[in-house]
């Protein structure tokens, strides 16, 4: 005789939360490595990707009209970049990413977004390959900022090839 009883506990009926892999978009060459890694991990785990770009605030308060024009141009460029990357994410994962544009200090805005969006579950960064170090975000989040993160940080070596990324994900 087979047991036909089903578990009716809330845990058994609740859908499994979707992992969201957050990638910080900047103009570094290692961005492509972090993006591909996040996409491959999201695809294999049934997760999604979120892209964040942060526009650093200028210091031209006495030229407010000029600063506003520059900010508008930066926002338009950032949105174009996010749309281009969103197409890449869609090709790799079959889903569209969440897109975020923020203004302010990059390290603080990453933390703010993570705090506001409980579905973000992993921060993915790729380390710089130049002798100057891994990059400012990695330096911050592996140092004094580590205690402020509420999610795991995945650091991907910035020099990995697509084949190497495919092999490890």
From TrEMBL:
Cited InterPro entries: Rossmann-like_a/b/a_fold, UspA
SUPFAM superfamilies hit by this protein: Adenine nucleotide alpha hydrolases-like
Source organism superkingdom: Bacteria
Keyword field: Coiled coil
Domain (UspA) ranges: 19-125
Keyword set includes Disulfide bond: no
Pfam families reported for this sequence: Usp (PF00582)
Annotated CDD domains: USP-like
Coiled-coil stretches noted in the UniProt entry, renumbered to this chain: 68-95
Protein name (record): Universal stress protein
Organism: Azospirillum lipoferum
